[in-house]
Amino acid sequence: MAALVTGVTSMPRGSGERSGLPIRVIGVSRAFRGGGGVVQAIDRVTLEVPAGEFLALVGRSGSGKTTLLNLIAGLDRPDTGQVFVGEDEISSFSEAQLTALRRHTLGFVFQSFGLLPLLSAAENVELALRIAGMGLRERAERTRELLEVVGLTRRANHRPYELSGGEQQRVAVARALANHPRVIIADEPTGELDSATGAQIFALLRNVANEGVTIVTATHDPFVMQQVDRVEELSDGRLLAASERVLAPPPPPRPLQPPRRPTPLR
Questions:
Q1: What distance in Å separates the CA atoms of residue 227 and residue 5, rounded to the nearest whole number?
Q2: What digits encode the pLDDT tens for the residues 75-115?
Q3: Which strands sit side by side in the sheet containing 23-34, from one edge to the other?
Q4: Which class for 114: exposed (0-12), middle (13-18), buried (19 or more C-beta within 10 A)?
Q5: Rounded to whole angstroms, what are the CA distances from 249 to 9, 89, 245, 260?
Q6: Cβ(106)–Cβ(130) under 8 Å?
Q7: How far is CA 109 from CA 3, 169, 170, 243, in A?
Q8: Which residues of the chain form beta strands (DSSP E)?
Q9: How far apart are the C-alpha atoms of 120 and 162, rounded to whole Å?
Q10: Contact, 177 vs 183, CB < 8 A?
Q11: 79-93 CB burial, b ≥16 within 10 A, e <16
Q12: How far apart are CA 211 and CA 261, in angstroms?
């Protein structure tokens, strides 16, 4: 598959290939209590994301996007309802099971990059592999592959403060891909980038989705909304019907295409 942006190659393939997983959120609610009373962050949300879909969640600040991502990722638990990743109801998982899920099945990309400042780009990527128990030689090869994928081979030994914002986010994407994730959770991945750099990061994620990985992102970026497979809008913790949407117009009809078997990441 051709690169979508300069310096970014297609995903490496091989014996580690795995396809994306579907996500189901069923009747989920989550409230937070504070000094001002109870805030209903998520209110009876039901959502299905097919395997391999690139879904964008939009909504004004405080609408519940990040809370919903956290519930899907097992970083928080719903008060009521169920969350499934594949066939597993992760809302009933133990902490040990959730840790294993995040380590081996999910990848994360955050708005603030989340890189360790004293580690180089290569070391930030390699750390995720070390935690997962991969051997030294395999770690070195996988890290090299991923930095090539995101166009940062020549910046492998640079620390985050020596990289631009776009380069830091590319490292974050490489780290998210390290353990062959089947689902990627991306919370405002272009939020701190200029429009041109944000478009490059999105093109990289689009490449990942085209390889069959399921991606759920929260965004305010109109460009992202136009390019993902589907957009859903949240308001006051509720998932809006198409007729209620303000920020995300109803999606146009998609042309019918013959079914294809996605080629997942190595």
A1: 15
A2: 999 999 999 999 999 999 999 999 999 888 999 988 777 88
A3: 37-49, 23-34, 80-85, 88-89
A4: middle
A5: 32, 31, 6, 28
A6: no
A7: 20, 8, 10, 31
A8: 23-34, 37-49, 54-58, 80-85, 88-89, 106-110, 183-187, 214-218, 230-235, 238-239
A9: 9
A10: no
A11: eebebbbbeeebbeb
A12: 10
Cα separation, 42 vs 32, in Å, equals 10
pTM across the whole model: 0.81
Both structure tokens of 18:
């795995």
pLDDT at 81: 96
Indicate if the pLDDT at residue 263 is higher than 50: no
The token pair that represents 112 in the structure block: 């603030």
What six digits make up the tokens of 245? Answer: 């949407």
> pLDDT digit string (tens) for 46-71?
999 999 999 999 998 889 999 999 99
Residues in the chain: 266
Place 251 in a pLDDT band, splitting at 50, 70 and 90: low
pLDDT at 226: 83
Q: Is the pLDDT of residue 15 over 70?
A: no
Q: How many CB atoms lie within 10 A of CB 266?
A: 18
The single-letter code of the amino acid at 69 is L
- 56: tokens are 């964008």
Mean pLDDT to the nearest integer, 227-237: 93
Q: In the chain, what's the furthest Cα-to-Cα distance?
A: 54
Q: Is 139 helix (H, G, I), strand (E, B) or coil?
A: helix
What type of residue sits at position 162?
Answer: E
Structure tokens at 189: 């991945």
Amino acid residing at 144: R
Rounded-to-10 torsion of CA 16, 22, 26, 32: 50
